[in-house]
Write a structure and sequence with these properties.
By secondary structure, the protein is of the alpha+beta class. The protein is built from six helices and six strands, in the order H-H-H-E-H-H-E-E-H-E-E-E. It has two domains: 46 residues, Arc Repressor Mutant, subunit A; 91 residues, 2-Layer Sandwich (Alpha-Beta Plaits), CATH 3.30.70.920.
Length: 174
Protein backbone atom coordinates (compact mmCIF):
# COMPACT_ATOMS: atom_id res chain seq x y z
CA UNK A 1 0.00 0.00 0.00
CA UNK A 2 1.39 3.41 -0.97
CA UNK A 3 2.03 5.87 1.82
CA UNK A 4 -0.15 8.96 1.65
CA UNK A 5 1.12 12.43 2.45
CA UNK A 6 -0.38 14.40 5.33
CA UNK A 7 -1.86 16.80 2.75
CA UNK A 8 -3.67 13.92 0.98
CA UNK A 9 -4.98 12.55 4.28
CA UNK A 10 -6.20 16.02 5.27
CA UNK A 11 -7.92 16.45 1.89
CA UNK A 12 -9.75 13.13 2.40
CA UNK A 13 -10.77 14.16 5.93
CA UNK A 14 -12.07 17.50 4.66
CA UNK A 15 -14.10 15.77 1.96
CA UNK A 16 -15.86 13.67 4.61
CA UNK A 17 -16.23 16.59 7.04
CA UNK A 18 -17.90 18.80 4.45
CA UNK A 19 -20.24 15.99 3.43
CA UNK A 20 -21.17 15.27 7.06
CA UNK A 21 -22.16 18.93 7.54
CA UNK A 22 -25.36 18.36 5.60
CA UNK A 23 -25.56 14.57 5.33
CA UNK A 24 -24.57 13.26 8.78
CA UNK A 25 -27.46 10.80 8.78
CA UNK A 26 -26.35 9.11 5.55
CA UNK A 27 -25.06 5.55 5.82
CA UNK A 28 -21.33 4.85 5.61
CA UNK A 29 -22.00 3.22 2.24
CA UNK A 30 -23.65 6.37 0.89
CA UNK A 31 -20.89 8.61 2.25
CA UNK A 32 -18.24 6.31 0.75
CA UNK A 33 -19.97 6.40 -2.62
CA UNK A 34 -20.30 10.21 -2.61
CA UNK A 35 -16.61 10.62 -1.67
CA UNK A 36 -15.30 7.86 -3.91
CA UNK A 37 -13.83 5.99 -0.91
CA UNK A 38 -14.25 2.49 0.48
CA UNK A 39 -16.55 1.98 3.48
CA UNK A 40 -13.63 0.94 5.76
CA UNK A 41 -11.75 4.11 4.79
CA UNK A 42 -14.78 6.29 5.63
CA UNK A 43 -15.25 4.45 8.95
CA UNK A 44 -11.55 4.91 9.80
CA UNK A 45 -11.53 8.62 8.90
CA UNK A 46 -14.70 9.34 10.91
CA UNK A 47 -13.29 7.46 13.91
CA UNK A 48 -10.05 9.47 13.69
CA UNK A 49 -11.98 12.75 13.44
CA UNK A 50 -14.11 11.84 16.47
CA UNK A 51 -11.12 10.74 18.56
CA UNK A 52 -9.20 13.95 17.74
CA UNK A 53 -12.33 15.93 18.71
CA UNK A 54 -12.51 17.49 15.25
CA UNK A 55 -16.07 16.14 15.21
CA UNK A 56 -17.68 17.17 18.50
CA UNK A 57 -20.95 15.33 17.96
CA UNK A 58 -24.06 15.08 15.83
CA UNK A 59 -27.46 16.67 16.27
CA UNK A 60 -30.86 16.91 14.66
CA UNK A 61 -31.56 20.16 12.83
CA UNK A 62 -34.97 21.13 14.13
CA UNK A 63 -37.88 23.28 12.97
CA UNK A 64 -38.48 25.02 16.32
CA UNK A 65 -41.62 26.70 15.03
CA UNK A 66 -43.42 23.34 15.05
CA UNK A 67 -42.91 23.28 18.83
CA UNK A 68 -43.93 26.91 19.31
CA UNK A 69 -40.35 27.98 20.02
CA UNK A 70 -38.61 31.01 18.59
CA UNK A 71 -34.93 31.55 17.81
CA UNK A 72 -32.97 34.45 19.23
CA UNK A 73 -29.46 35.81 18.96
CA UNK A 74 -27.91 37.75 21.80
CA UNK A 75 -24.91 39.92 20.99
CA UNK A 76 -22.78 40.99 23.95
CA UNK A 77 -20.13 43.70 24.15
CA UNK A 78 -17.99 43.26 27.21
CA UNK A 79 -16.77 46.01 29.49
CA UNK A 80 -13.06 46.63 29.85
CA UNK A 81 -12.62 44.23 32.76
CA UNK A 82 -10.23 41.31 33.15
CA UNK A 83 -11.71 38.36 31.27
CA UNK A 84 -10.39 35.55 33.52
CA UNK A 85 -13.38 35.49 35.88
CA UNK A 86 -15.94 35.51 33.09
CA UNK A 87 -14.09 32.68 31.34
CA UNK A 88 -14.27 30.65 34.57
CA UNK A 89 -18.04 31.27 34.74
CA UNK A 90 -18.48 30.25 31.11
CA UNK A 91 -16.42 27.10 31.59
CA UNK A 92 -18.46 26.22 34.69
CA UNK A 93 -21.57 26.34 32.46
CA UNK A 94 -23.31 28.68 34.91
CA UNK A 95 -25.00 30.47 32.00
CA UNK A 96 -26.45 27.21 30.66
CA UNK A 97 -27.88 26.35 34.08
CA UNK A 98 -29.56 29.76 34.21
CA UNK A 99 -30.96 29.25 30.72
CA UNK A 100 -32.42 25.85 31.63
CA UNK A 101 -34.15 27.34 34.69
CA UNK A 102 -35.87 29.89 32.44
CA UNK A 103 -36.78 27.33 29.76
CA UNK A 104 -34.19 28.55 27.25
CA UNK A 105 -32.11 26.17 25.14
CA UNK A 106 -28.67 27.49 24.13
CA UNK A 107 -27.77 26.13 20.71
CA UNK A 108 -24.48 27.92 20.12
CA UNK A 109 -22.20 30.29 21.95
CA UNK A 110 -19.21 32.04 20.36
CA UNK A 111 -16.38 34.29 21.51
CA UNK A 112 -15.94 36.90 18.75
CA UNK A 113 -13.53 39.45 17.34
CA UNK A 114 -15.23 42.64 16.17
CA UNK A 115 -17.84 45.10 17.42
CA UNK A 116 -19.28 42.50 19.80
CA UNK A 117 -17.35 40.04 21.93
CA UNK A 118 -19.87 37.26 22.41
CA UNK A 119 -22.76 35.76 20.45
CA UNK A 120 -25.32 33.37 21.92
CA UNK A 121 -27.90 31.61 19.73
CA UNK A 122 -30.81 30.19 21.67
CA UNK A 123 -34.47 29.19 21.50
CA UNK A 124 -37.19 30.29 23.88
CA UNK A 125 -40.96 30.05 24.09
CA UNK A 126 -41.41 33.75 23.34
CA UNK A 127 -39.86 37.20 23.56
CA UNK A 128 -40.75 37.44 27.25
CA UNK A 129 -38.61 34.38 28.05
CA UNK A 130 -35.80 35.61 25.79
CA UNK A 131 -35.79 39.01 27.56
CA UNK A 132 -35.79 37.27 30.95
CA UNK A 133 -32.73 35.26 29.88
CA UNK A 134 -31.01 38.43 28.70
CA UNK A 135 -31.87 40.15 32.01
CA UNK A 136 -30.55 37.28 34.11
CA UNK A 137 -27.38 37.18 32.06
CA UNK A 138 -26.81 40.92 32.47
CA UNK A 139 -27.53 40.64 36.21
CA UNK A 140 -25.05 37.76 36.64
CA UNK A 141 -22.31 39.29 34.49
CA UNK A 142 -23.09 43.00 35.05
CA UNK A 143 -19.50 44.00 35.75
CA UNK A 144 -18.35 42.38 32.51
CA UNK A 145 -21.11 43.49 30.13
CA UNK A 146 -21.20 46.93 28.57
CA UNK A 147 -24.04 46.35 26.10
CA UNK A 148 -26.36 43.64 24.78
CA UNK A 149 -28.42 43.45 21.62
CA UNK A 150 -31.22 40.86 21.39
CA UNK A 151 -32.34 39.83 17.90
CA UNK A 152 -35.18 37.52 16.87
CA UNK A 153 -34.60 35.19 13.93
CA UNK A 154 -37.79 35.47 11.90
CA UNK A 155 -36.89 32.93 9.23
CA UNK A 156 -34.01 30.41 9.15
CA UNK A 157 -32.80 30.03 5.56
CA UNK A 158 -30.05 27.58 6.50
CA UNK A 159 -29.15 26.04 9.85
CA UNK A 160 -26.14 23.86 10.65
CA UNK A 161 -25.41 23.37 6.97
CA UNK A 162 -28.98 22.27 6.16
CA UNK A 163 -31.20 24.41 3.93
CA UNK A 164 -34.71 24.98 5.27
CA UNK A 165 -36.98 22.46 3.47
CA UNK A 166 -39.71 25.11 3.49
CA UNK A 167 -37.51 27.79 1.90
CA UNK A 168 -40.41 29.06 -0.24
CA UNK A 169 -42.05 30.45 2.92
CA UNK A 170 -39.34 33.13 2.93
CA UNK A 171 -41.54 35.03 0.43
CA UNK A 172 -44.02 35.67 3.26
CA UNK A 173 -41.43 37.85 5.00
CA UNK A 174 -40.25 39.92 2.04
Amino acid sequence: MAKRSRAEVRKDEEKILFLLQSHAKDSLETIAKKCGFSVPKVRRIIKTLEESKTIWGYHAVTDYEKYDLKEYILLIRKANKPAEEIVDKIISREMEKQAEDIGVIIGSSYYLHGTYDWLICFVAKDLKHAKKFESELVKTYRTYIQETNLLENIFPVKRSGIQNPEIDKLREFV
